[in-house]
Amino acid sequence: MAAQDTELVGSLVQLMHKLQDLYAESSRPLGLTPQQAHLLCVLLAGPFGMTELSRIMSIERSSLTSMVDRLERRELVERLPDPADRRACRIGLSAAGTKLADQAHTTYTDRIAELTAALPATQRKAVVSAVGVIVGA
Amino acid sequence: MAAQDTELVGSLVQLMHKLQDLYAESSRPLGLTPQQAHLLCVLLAGPFGMTELSRIMSIERSSLTSMVDRLERRELVERLPDPADRRACRIGLSAAGTKLADQAHTTYTDRIAELTAALPATQRKAVVSAVGVIVGA
DNA sequence: TATTGTTATACTCTATAACTATA
DNA sequence: TATAGTTATAGAGTATAACAATA
Fold it and tell me: Does Protein biosynthesis count among this protein's keywords (chains A, B) (predicted)?
């Protein structure tokens, strides 16, 4: 691997850990784990079925069942019947869940926006474009 | 928050999740959780004391005690006495731990290098520089 | 007194395998 | 048969609070 790769890869790994920390710090004051915040934020674009949601979040369906159970007990999400398939359900946000998801999203979004405030437009564009390549968009 | 922020923040969050998935996929075949792989890779620059290590990894010392216990049982890390302080210990990699840490590091590093292979030099530099600003280097 | 690391406890996240109900 | 989701189980990560030994 070339030296330029080492540098870029190192940067990306550093960035991942930094963003993970930010995510955790943003979720905690809201009484959410990072993964719960993630689920709630995904559902802002929802509702989704369990299988679909498990693919989006890269976790097993059974793991998701546990998460949804806990969030449903707190009345942040709801299992809605799927009119087209009696086996399936749609996971949606309750009013309280929507509010909390908005807060979580706003909080970490603002934190990242602060950290990137100093970046010039050209660098922003380069980063956005690079991410597009990396995530295969 | 301005539209340019929304775009950049969205990209960064996407990137974080993508890198997390890569990290998990790289660790798993080696019999390591992502966090275990992280700890082992940090120790490549080690050894470190528990308090120092907990700060590096942004977890509580007691959480780290659990992790080190498990990895020590598998003989991947060792608790070495600190000659200067009888309360403290230094966590270091065993020979097997070093080998595994190298493998983990190489695996995800190669995966990321593949994904970024198409990026031109100017974009690489922009990303590295942007990350420097974000993580406060 | 302050710090280092551990223990005890409780909860969350996670996967695998087996299961029920429906398609 | 195949798919949607759940249950049972076990292991791993996490934090809080209280603790022992040493500084």
Answer: no
